[in-house]
Design goal:
Layout (H helix, E strand, L loop, with lengths): L7 H5 L7 H15 L9 H21 L2 H9 L1 H6 L38 H22 L25 H11 L16 H5 L4 H36 L1 H68 L39 H8 L5 H14 L1 H9 L1 E2 L5 E2 L2 H23 L5 E3 L4 E3 L2 H8 L2 H33 L1
Antiparallel strand pairs: 1-2, 3-4
Helix pairs in contact: 2-3, 11-16, 12-13
Length: about 475
């Protein structure tokens, strides 16, 4: 021991039941009074005394400011103040194998951290932990054990406390080993009942009770010993400069790592924003290109519609079809030119001309051969008929006259009907009724109506074609 042991409460001048705020206030007041910067004007001896008092103040505050350490200090305060010879003389009822560690829970047991000082922090506690291990080893051997490798804490002989120049790996290994301390002593000296007492027991039940009491006593003593040593390890580790330096280094490394991670996160965020902007630009370009493509495709479809579709959808006057010249094959060659108006009404006699467009010239040749075999009468029928470029038959002037008369009658009837406002308007191709002319007109401009109308036209053309073929065959049969 390098100085007289003083109570921490007496050093700070507070009561034992003082709370943390009172302890902190007393420490601040005494620290300002005895701080080395405040004693510059004093002589050398007074400065040394003030420095020693400042160390005691700091040690007392470190102990009492920690709730766990203060609790342990309150429980062992009397033992610490009594001091002793560090376990050299065992107390009554205790073994010399149990090294007394209570005096080492006092910061005055060492003098600074200089390796050249014989009572420095490292030399004092290195000797203390070595004495603890030697007591464990001697007690283990005294129990009749020979092989030390079987001892629970045999690994403690491998690690050393070291000095201020020791590497952190060695320091860390030392504290990790001693923080898991377990005693190898059996603590037989704390038994309440000894061998003679058990022999004098009246029966087996009493002996079992005696053994249970001794077992409980030993277990409590072992637990207390382990707690004492682990408390000493925590006390020393808290004041070890090497541990403090390592903790500060870890904090610096953690701060650097957090700063680096933050910087990397910001860079990744910037990259994501840049990539997102590039993606948006690419998508906008792609959308613009797609819109331009769709617009061009729409123009092409409109151009195809204007060039190929001769149906008037209500947007203006319909275009007339090109004039086609009809040719007659036979004796007298006659050609007829007429305009086929594009209207919503379908005339079967006119649609025959358009419906037989799909017939090929080979079919025409076959029909001519059939007519020649039929005789002069059938040939005369073909001479009177009019054939256009696509091979369809055109009726003669008399038939056309009859059709014109019929058409005039139908037109007059339609005009008379149009004068009277109908109750409903019906679209035959779509099979729908409408209540007003405006609804019917809007319907005729719709896409679905136009599609239905084209299908309806094809259907009428097909029926007209079939009818024309049947009529032609009937004429041929009649001529025969």
């Amino acid at each position: 021991m390098t100085g007289q042991i003083r109570c921490h409460y007496d050093v700070l001048g507070v009561e034992r039941d003082a709370d943390a705020a009172i302890v902190k206030k007393a420490h601040r007041k005494l620290a300002l009074k005895h701080h080395p910067d405040k004693t510059v004007s004093l002589d050398e001896q007074q400065r040394e005394e003030s420095a020693a008092e400042f160390k005691l103040i700091q040690a007392a505050y470190e102990c009492l400011s920690d709730p766990v350490e203060r609790k342990w200090y309150d429980e062992h305060r009397d033992m610490i103040l009594r001091g002793g010879m560090h376990g050299s003389d065992a107390a009554d009822g205790e073994s010399s194998f149990v090294y007394d560690v209570t005096p080492f829970h006092f910061s005055g047991c060492y003098d600074g951290y200089d390796d050249n000082n014989p009572d420095n922090f490292y030399s004092v506690y290195a000797e203390c932990f070595e004495s603890i291990y030697n007591g464990e080893k001697d007690g283990y051997i005294s129990e009749g054990n020979i092989d030390l490798d079987d001892m629970h804490n045999a690994h403690l002989s491998v690690v050393s406390f070291g000095n201020s120049l020791s590497k952190w790996e060695e320091v860390s290994a030392f504290y990790n080993s001693w923080e898991a301390f377990t005693t190898s002593l059996n603590f037989a000296w704390v038994d309440i009942y000894h061998l003679n007492d058990m022999r004098e027991a009246p029966n087996r039940r009493i002996r079992r009770l005696m053994e249970d009491d001794n077992r409980k006593k030993r277990k409590a003593a072992k637990k207390e010993r382990v707690e004492e040593v682990i408390a000493l390890v925590r006390f020393v580790k808290k004041r070890d400069p090497r541990v403090r330096a390592q903790r500060e280094q870890q904090l610096r490394d953690q701060a650097k790592k957090e700063a680096k991670d933050k910087k990397d996160a910001e860079e990744r965020k910037k990259k994501r924003e840049i990539a997102k902007q590039e993606w948006r630009i690419q998508q906008e370009i792609a959308m613009a290109e797609q819109e331009a493509t769709d617009l061009d495709a729409g123009r092409i479809r409109l151009a195809d519609l204007d060039s190929d579709d001769d149906y008037d959808y209500g947007g203006g006057k319909g275009k007339g079809r090109k004039k086609k010249k009809g040719k007659r094959r036979g004796k007298n060659n006659k050609s007829y030119d007429f305009d086929n108006e594009d209207t919503n009404e379908v005339d079967a006699s006119v649609d025959v001309t358009d419906g037989i467009v799909a017939e090929s010239e080979n079919d025409d040749t076959d029909r001519l051969e059939v007519n020649e075999e039929a005789g002069n009468d059938s040939t005369q029928i073909l001479d009177d008929a009019e054939v256009d470029d696509s091979g369809s038959n055109i009726p003669d002037n008399d038939d056309m006259g009859d059709n014109d008369a019929e058409y005039d009658i139908m037109s007059s009837e339609e005009e008379s009907e149009s004068e009277e406002e109908p109750d409903s308007w019906r679209c035959e191709c779509c099979r729908k009724d409408f209540k007003s002319a405006a609804q019917f007109e809007n319907h005729t401009k719709s896409k679905k109506h136009k599609e239905k109308w084209k299908q309806y036209e094809k259907k009428l053309q097909k029926e007209a074609k079939q009818k024309a073929v049947e009529d032609l065959m009937d004429e041929i049969d009649g001529g025969n």
